[in-house]
Amino acid sequence: QNIGDSIDETGTDLPFVNLGTNASIDKIxxxxxxxxxxxxxxxxxxxxxxxxxxxxxxSSNGGFGDGYLETGDTLPFMQFPTGRHATMIEAGKSHTxxxxxxxxxxxxxxxxxxxxxLGDTDHRGDATGEIGSNFAVTSVPTGRTIDSMALGWDHxxxxxxxxxxxxxxxxxxxxxxxxSTTDIGDGAGxxxxxLDFIDLPGTAxxxxxxxxxxxxxxxxSGTDKAFCWGLNDFGQLGxxxxxxxxxxxxxxxxxxxxxxxxxEV
Length: 265
Known about the structure:
Number of helices: 0
Number of strands: 14
CATH architecture of the largest domain: 7 Propeller
Strand order of the largest sheet: 1-2-3-4
Radius of gyration: 19 Å
Distance between the termini: 45 Å
Number of domains: 2
Helix content: under 10%
CATH superfamily of the largest domain: Regulator of chromosome condensation 1/beta-lactamase-inhibitor protein II
Order of helices and strands: EEEEEEEEEEEEEE
C-alpha cells in the first residue's frame, strides 16, 4: 500500500517507521527499494526489498518491513565485524556502504559492476558467511581515509581526507571520471594503491552520485564550483550541451567545465 497519496495518510495520520525501543537515529539513506538507518550508537538497520541485495542480512529472498513482526525490535541490526560500529553510511540503487570506526570501508549488496570495490563481481550479503566478521573490506589507497562518500546507480565515489576524490564501479558513461568507460573494482589489481584519483581543477569538499553521472563541489581558484561528469543526455551536467564528460570520447576531465549556475535577469 502506498502512503502519502491520500489526504488521510499525511499529517498526524502519517505512521512513523518503528525501528525499535528508544531508537535514536542519526541518518537515513535510501536506495531504489531499500532504506537504512544509522543510529547514534553506530548500529544500523535496513529494510525494504531484499532481492535487491542491499539489506545485507544473508538473504536475497523477500524483504523486511512489509509484514507482521518485521519492524521495531524484531527488525535485526546489521552484523558488523566484532567490536566495530558505523560512523558513516550511504546507499545506492541496490548496494550500501558503511565506514567503520576504524576507518575500514565495508560494502554489501549488488556488485555486478564492481561497485563494492572488492576486485570481483560477486554480490555480498545475499548468502551466509559474508557478513559480520566475514565482511570483506574495500581496499583504499595507503594512508587515505574517507571524508565523505556517495553511491550512485551502480558506482561508488568518495572524497578522501586530503580532499582528492575517487570512484569505482560501473563506468558505461564515464561516471568514474577517468576518461574511459572501463569498470573499476570488478577485477584484481584495480583498488588500493592502484585506484586512480579524479583529475579535478581543485580540491573536492563534497561529492554526489546519480544514475550514470557524478558531481562534486570543487575549490576552483578559491571559489567553490559544481563540476559534473558522466552521462549528459538530458543536460544533467549543467554545461549547456548534451555531450558526456569523462567517457574518453566526449569532453575530457582535464578540460572539464563547471556547471553554470548563474542566472541573469
